[in-house]
Amino acid sequence: MDRESNVKIVIIGAGAMGSLFGARLTLAGEEVWLVDISEETIRIISKDGLTLTSGDGNIVTRPQATTQVSAAGPADLVIIFVKSWATPAAAAAAKHLLKNDTVVLTLQNGFGNAEILASELGVGRVIVGITSQGATLLRPGHVMHGGDGETQIGELRGEASPRLKLVADLLTKSGIPAQPVGNIAAFIWGKLIVNAGINAVTALTRLYNGQLAQLDETRELVTAAVQEAAAVAGTVGVTLPFTDPVAKVFSVAESTAGNRSSMLQDILAGRQTEIDSINGVIVREGERLRVPTPVNRVLTSLIMALDKGLHSDL
After folding, report:
1. How far apart are CA 225 and CA 62, in angstroms?
2. SS3 of 71-125
3. Quick check: helix, strand or coil at residue 200?
4. What burial letters (b/e) apply to 244-281, b meaning 16+ CB within 10 Å?
5. Which of 165, 191, 248, 308 is catalytic?
6. Which of 13, 24, 66, 270 could potentially form a cystine with 18 if both were Cys, beta carbons 3.0 to 4.6 Å apart?
7. Which residues 6+ apart lie within 8 Å of 176 measured at CB?
8. Residue 193 backbone dihedrals phi, psi, to 5 degrees
9. Which residues does residue 55 pair with via DSSP β-bridges, in sequence order?
10. What pLDDT does 314 receive?
11. What percentage of the chain has pLDDT greater than the value 70?
């Protein structure tokens, strides 16, 4: 990837986050392609553009859009924004976009996505990151920016590299402030804990992120889930990028107050959630390390029951 020339960016997954990043990068003047399996989404974006709603009002952007990844052609940067359960399919699709210096960035929720991509595409191509930007997909082709948040990116092996700065600068220029970091694993665990505290509780209660702190019941649930997750991380030996996990989670919820969490958006749309790669990870690691995680276990079971109820003939 060479920032001295024009950068071609292909985003796989045109959901809330893929649409937000696609709109911002298009507004910054980059060549952006959105790839999604939803024919309706691609038809709307191709015909009417991709609308971004933010504090500046409604802005219509014009990225390229296709359901066929081969139509997007070789890319300088590929950004993966599919759900965790769809990562293997996204990795296979991304093969059609590779040239010698193509960089593949995952900013997905959950655990293990980068490893799946690296096994399919090569560890040397993949960089991994986390973002706390808030986005709600109002309808196909129309995304609302629900709140600013931090974005960090790093190499899988933890080292610093020039390409990290290139990608971080590209995102920052588009209005998504990003920082390259040396120990990305700590930030991935940090994001996992934030998601474990916010996503399942909002999905079950139908509350916006900013409402979690307003009810004693949800404050208690979030606090317990986060404390369990932090105990698991500490037993693994991870030093989190913040000193007070509970305060951090409520801070993120407040900064994205008007946002519906990705898991709530999935439940409302009847889509499969990512519970297995979020709270489910906390439960499995807790079992392995003999760290009790009863609240995360209940949250995981409840969301899995919703998933099965939505996708079965029960």
Report:
1. 41
2. HHCCCCEEEECCCHHHHHHHHHHHHHHCCCCCEEEECCCCCCHHHHHHHHHCCCC
3. helix
4. ebbebbbbbbebbeebbbbbbbbbeeebbbbbbbbbbb
5. 191
6. 13
7. 21, 24, 131, 133, 151
8. -70, -40
9. none
10. 47
11. 97
Report pLDDT for 282: 97
Q: To which residue do tokens 């105990």 refer?
A: 231
Asked whether the predicted pLDDT for residue 255 surpasses 60, the reply is yes
pLDDT for res 132: 86
Residues 6+ apart with CB under 8 A from 4: none
Q: And the tokens for 263? A: 């898991």
Distance CA 154, CA 157 (A): 8
How would you list the strands of the sheet with 142-147, edge to edge?
57-61, 50-54, 142-147, 134-139
CA 43 – CA 39 distance, rounded (Å): 6
Token pair 């709530």 is found at 264
Q: What number of CA atoms fall less than 13 Å from residue 69's CA on the CB side?
A: 21
Residue with tokens 């991509």: 117
At CA 97, angle to CA 96 and CA 102, rounded to 5? 140
pLDDT at 3 over 70: no
Contact 136, 260 (CB under 8 A): yes
Residues 6 or more apart in contact with residue 247 via CB below 8 angstroms:
none
Q: Strand 31-35 relative to strand 8-12: parallel, antiparallel, unpaired?
A: parallel
> Active site includes 191?
yes
Residue with tokens 């995680």: 293
| Amino acid at position 2, single letter | D
The pLDDT tens digits of the residues spanning 47-65 come to 999 999 998 899 999 999 9
Per DSSP, helices labelled H in 147-215 are: 162-173, 184-205
Question: Residue 166: CB partners within 8 Å, gap ≥ 6?
Answer: 1, 3
Predicted model pTM: 0.88
- Residue 21 in tokens: 């990043």
CA separation for the pair 175, 132 (Å, rounded): 13
